[in-house]
Amino acid sequence: MGLGKTIQSITFIASLKENEKVRGPFLIIGPLSTIPNWDREFRTWAPHLNVVTYVGSQDSRPLIKEYEFYDESSTDKGDVKFDVLLTSYELVTKDTSVFKPITWEVRI
């Protein structure tokens, strides 16, 4: 705790995106209790990245996917409109079908 791992990871992703021109998307899986912290730190340290937080009830998660994942004009479901997706391990295992079609550049 308090060693700067979150900031280091955010800086790494921002560097990949800006300096190395890695397009993304990037997947961050963490404990549900830390997801709000990740979101806050991304907005502080890398506000230029489009970060989507994928948490919530079974009814709300499909809405996140519908409105935050894909452009309406996109025909390729592997082409998402966000740079970073924050979620928990539990949701990755529950909603595998949501994550599987996406080609992730980096998973942390």
Secondary-structure topology with pairs:
Blueprint: H1 5-18, E1 26-30, H2 35-45, E2 51-53, H3 61-69, E3 84-88, H4 89-94, H5 96-99, E4 106-107
Parallel strand pairs: 1-3, 1-4, 2-3
Q: Overview of this structure, please?
A:
By secondary structure, the protein is of the alpha/beta class. Helices cover 41% and strands 14% of the residues. It contains five helices and four strands, in the order H-E-H-E-H-E-H-H-E. A four-stranded parallel beta sheet has the order 2-3-1-4, with helices on both faces. The radius of gyration is 14 Å and the shape is globular.
Task: Give a short summary of the structure.
By secondary structure, the protein is of the alpha/beta class. It contains 5 helices and 4 strands, in the order H-E-H-E-H-E-H-H-E. It has one domain: Tandem AAA-ATPase domain (Rossmann fold, 3-Layer(aba) Sandwich).
Number of helices: 5
Number of strands: 4
Strand fraction? 5-15%
Structural domain count:
1
CATH topology group: Rossmann fold
Order the strands across the largest sheet as they lie in space.
Answer: 2-3-1-4
pLDDT average, as an integer? 89
Identify the CATH architecture: 3-Layer(aba) Sandwich
- Return Rg in Å: 14 Å
Q: What are the segments in which pLDDT stays under 50 over at least 5 consecutive residues? A: none
Q: Report the biggest beta sheet as strand number plus sense, adding barrel if it closes.
A: 4 strands, parallel
H/E topology pattern:
HEHEHEHHE
CATH class, please? Alpha Beta
- Helix content class: 40-55%
Principal-axis shape = globular
Distance between the termini: 17 Å
Q: What is the name of the CATH superfamily?
A: Tandem AAA-ATPase domain
Decide which structural class fits the backbone: alpha/beta
